[in-house]
15-hydroxyprostaglandin dehydrogenase [NAD(+)] (Lingula anatina), 190 residues
Amino acid sequence: MIIQDKVAFVTGGAQGIGRAICKALLTKGAKVIIADINVTEGKSTASEFATEYADNVTFIECDVTNQESVEGIMPFFACPSYCASKYGIVGFTRSIAMSPDFDLHKVRMNCLCPDMVDTPMISRFSKEGEKKGFIIHYDHVKDAVKQPPLKPPAVADVFIDLVEDESKNGAALLIPRKGPPRDIEFPVYQ
């Protein structure tokens, strides 16, 4: 897909991966709506981007979370609910991409599966994770992570490649910290 003059609505666009995706889309000529619960960061990001991209960027306050549903299932080793939600997204993406309506209207559905990314969320997790019960063996997990995290612009670059590659529909791209991005292959049952 040609990104120039398309409109993008980016949830979580104020910082981290979302911010990097907003920047990459603006660089390609898209009009971007930054949607985020963090009003201060959202307005700041929109203001910063507006100096270069003028009216092609705006911010709206948007909360797409349900904190109660997260808090009720988080206190398990290494956040299995987080992992399960990511597996669920891959299945959801692959299933919804099969919709005949999407094909008719030329809508594609793909997802990115990045390894650990250097974002404010990771920083907060490191500082607050143990005291909130996110993981009960924090030191073990910390020691297991030896490679440096991905940077948000690296994830945004893969996102742009995926959007521009019209052959992809129902794809789940793994973005490892070491090595190139690759499709997650699933068995074909006959």
